[in-house]
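Good morning C.,

I know you're traveling, so I'll keep this short. The sequence:
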Amino acid sequence: MVDIREISTRLKLAEDGIWYSTNVDSISYPSKGNCSCFAIEENSFWFRHRNNCIASVVKSYPPENNGTIFDIGGGNGFVSLILAEAGHNVTLVEPGRVGAANAKKRGIENVICATTNTAEFKQNSLSAVGLFDVVEHIKDDLAFLTSVRELMKENAPLYVTVPSYPFLWSAEDVFSGHFRRYALGNIVNILKLAGFQVEFSSYFFRFLPLPIFLLRTLPYKFGVSKRERVPEATSRDHSIACGVSGTLLDLILKTEIVNLNNRNAMSFGGSCVIVAKTQR
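The tokens, ready to paste straight into the viewer:
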């Protein structure tokens, strides 16, 4: 496990076991976002399947010498937890105090409450980085990814997930504080411009684009979307259906994991996953 004092002199360990920076940085994320996610993550097919997809690509492209994965913008630690359970060393970096506290409750050993800016990590100090549905929250994604690359060691892996297809933009993206959605080729090109070499890229959640378009995008385009997110509706969207539809969904999701385990890229889906490495 990494020694936090070796990668930053700005962070201080508090009595709650969380490392804090004295500086504060603004983020494009709802103030109640971590609370909302924490309430549904455990029972959400979306969060669970995304975890399984992330675990699959990290297993296929692991950090050298079991280096620590810095889960930047890691929220409540739901991804960090599955990576830790898979045997990886993980440090969660989350600017929201609620998310950081939730991650600590989940048993994540190293939790840093800061952004990459306020943490002031030393250059070339991070052995691996995960950005799981984070980049879409950053206004200048290229500048952010370039700054992350400068913090990473040579040949360190970067794991990224983002929501796919700009044409699927809806009120949900607005509520979530997104600046954009990505075509896979677009995010791959941005990573290359930021100084990364892309090792693997794929879509996943192949069944989601059509329901997103019908149930979210079209209502948004015609001005009939709700003005704010309703917790009950969010919980319902993330629940797993029973019966034939639930069985079919389970089969679809399992085939995606098989594809990722075999490093077989998928050509469409509601999300993108990319593995890249730093170039010097």
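Safe travels,
E.
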